[in-house]
Amino acid sequence: MHYYSLNHQSPNVSFREAVIAGLAPDKGLYFPSEICTIPQEIIKHPDQFSDADIAFKVIRPYVGNDIPDDVLHRIVEETTNFPVPLVPVNEQMWSLELFHGPTLAFKDTGARFMSRCLGYFAREQSEKVTVLAATSGDTGGAVADGFYDVEGINVVILYPSGKVSAVQEKQLTTHGKNIYALEVQGSFDDCQYMVKQAFADAELTRKMFLTSANSINVARWLPQQFYYLLAWKQWPLKDQPPVIAVPSGNFGNICAGLMAHVSGMPVAHFIAACNANDVVPEYMHTGQYAAKTAVSTLSNAMDIGNPSNFIRILEIFQNKFEALKEKITAYSISDAETVQAMQNAYRNDHYLCDPHGAVGYLALQRYLLEHPAQKGYFIETAHPVKFIETVEQALEFRPELPGPVAEIMKKEKHSVVTEASYDALRAFLMGMR
Ligand SMILES: *Cc1c(COP(=O)(O)O)cnc(C)c1O
Fold first, then answer.
1. Fewest C-beta atoms under 10 Å: which of 154, 177, 261, 369?
2. Looking at residue 13, what DSSP letter applies?
3. What pLDDT does residue 400 have?
4. Is 213 in a helix, a strand, or coil?
5. Ligand 1 centroid vs 197 CA: distance in angstroms?
6. How far from 368 is each of 237, 255, 351, CA to CA, in Å?
7. Which of left, alpha, beta for 410 (phi over 0: left; psi -120 to 50: alpha)?
8. 422 near 194, Cβ under 8 Å?
C-alpha cells in the first residue's frame, strides 16, 4: 500500500509519510493505491466482532507496516471507546448519533485516530511537530481535545471570528498548554487558504515541521469508515441496505462512507445533504464543478464553498459522472427549511436535531418520499447543545447542557485575534519557534 497525490506531480509515499505531510508537496490530496476489500465475515456477521476489531480490520491494510499491530489495536480501541448508536426516528428513518465522543461531534473519531498516529510517529522525530488546522467549527475542538498534552506536538487552530458557536469557541480556546487558537477576522475559506499558503511556503517549512489536521489528512479521513461499519452492525434490515444521508461541508465524512461502500459494505444510496452552500448539488445538476464563496448559515460547520474532499470522491468513481450520479443524490437545504426540519423532527418524531443533523433529516426525508419502499439513516454529526442558540430559537426551549459542556463554558477563552492574511499567520508561526 502506498499513497499517491491526486495532482500526480509528487512521489508516492507510505502511510507514515502521508500522515506527517498532510498535503502532498504538489498540494494534491493523498489517495491510497488500493481500495481494500473488507473481510466478508465482517459484512455477513458484524455482531460477532467487537467495535475495535472491526475498526482494526478495516484500517490495518491502509496503515501497512508503519505501526505495529499491538499499537494500532490500542489506537483503534481509543478511537472507538464511545458509543455510536443507531437510533430509530420513525418507520423509515434512523439517526446515527456520532456526538457521544469527547467534543460531542463526529470529528472526534478522525481527530482521535490521527492524533494518536501522529503522536506515535512524532516520537521518532527530533523536531517538534506543529499541527496547523483551519476549522469551520467542530474540527478545532476535536483536534484540540485529541492532541491536548501530546508530547512533541504543538497545535495551531485558525477559526473565523464570530462564525462558530459559543460552545465550539470554548472547546477550541480553553485548553492552553500546547494548543493555540487564532481568531481570524474573516471566513472559514480565508482560514483554509492561510493554512494552504503556510504549507506552500518553502522557507517556513524548512524552519519548522508543519503538518495538517484537516479532514484532508488520510489519518482523519480513512478512520471515518469505522462508524459506517458500526452502523451496519446495528442496521436491523440486513437484506435491505440503508440509504445514508450525510450532512456535508468538506465532504470528508461522506467520502469515507463511499470508501466503506466500494470496499464491500452494502448501501442502497448516498445523500449529500448540503446547506445553502450548494457547489456539489449544482455539480450533480450540471456536471460542471464551480467553486463559490462560502455563505454563512445555521449549520456553520458546513459553510464551505470549495469542498476539498470532493476530488477524492471523483477519484473513487474514476471521474465517471454517470456512475457518481447513480450512487449519490445531493440536496441544498435553506436555513428556513432547516428550522422547519428541526421543528418537524421534534414535533412529529420526538427527535431533537441540531441544525446539521436537521439538514440530513430533511434531505433523507425528501429522498424517501420519492422512494417510499426504501429505508435509511441520517448522520447526526453534532450534539444539539453545540448549537444551543439555534435549537432554542427553533423549538422554544433550551436543552440542558451535558456536564462536560457546562464545565467548559465556565473556562476562560484564550485566542489571538489575527487579520485574514497569510502574513499574519506567518508572523505568528515564526514567533513560536
Ligand atoms: C465538519 C462537520 C460537518 C461536515 O463534515 P465534512 O466531512 O466536512 O463534510 C457536518 N456537521 C458537523 C457538525 C461538522 O462538524
1. 369
2. B
3. 87
4. coil
5. 23
6. 16, 21, 18
7. alpha
8. yes
Distance (Å, rounded) from C-alpha 158 to C-alpha 133?
Answer: 6
Would you say 132 and 216 are in contact if contact means Cβ atoms under 8 Å apart?
no
Output DSSP code: residue 67.
S
215 close to ligand 1 (CB < 6 Angstrom): yes
Whether ligand 1 lies within 6 angstroms of the CB of 138 is answered as: yes
Task: Provide Rg for the chain, Cα atoms.
Answer: 20
Which pLDDT value is given to residue 330? 98
pLDDT of residue 321: 93
Q: What is the mean pLDDT of residues 369-375?
A: 98
Given a cut of 80, is residue 137 above it in pLDDT?
no
pLDDT at 214 over 80: no
76-87: b (≥16 Cβ within 10 Å) or e: beebbeeebebe
Task: Evaluate if residue 406 carries a pLDDT over 90.
Answer: no
Buried b / exposed e across 394-418, counting CB within 10 Å, b at 16+? bbeeeeebeeebeebeeeeeebeeb
Please tell me if the CB atom of residue 171 comes closer than 6 angstroms to any atom of ligand 1: no
Q: Within its chain, how far is the Cα of 331 from the centroid?
A: 19
Residue 382 region by backbone torsions, left for phi larger than 0, else alpha for psi between -120 and 50, else beta: beta
pLDDT tens profile 327-369 = 999 999 999 999 999 999 999 999 999 999 999 999 999 999 9
CA nearest neighbour of 134 among 165, 159, 168: 159
d(CA 408, CA 406): 6
Q: From start to end of 311-354, where are the E strands? A: 328-332
Closest Cα to atom 14 of ligand 1: 301
User: Residue 55 contacts by C-beta under 8 Å, 6 or more apart in sequence?
Assistant: 76, 79, 80, 223, 226, 229
CA of 250 to the centre of ligand 1 (A): 7
Q: Which atom of ligand 1 is nearest to the CA of 356?
A: 11
Q: Do the beta carbons of residue 329 and residue 421 sit within 8 Å?
A: no
Angle at 72 between CA 67 and CA 76, to 5 degrees: 145
> Quick check: CB of 137 below 6 Å from ligand 1?
yes
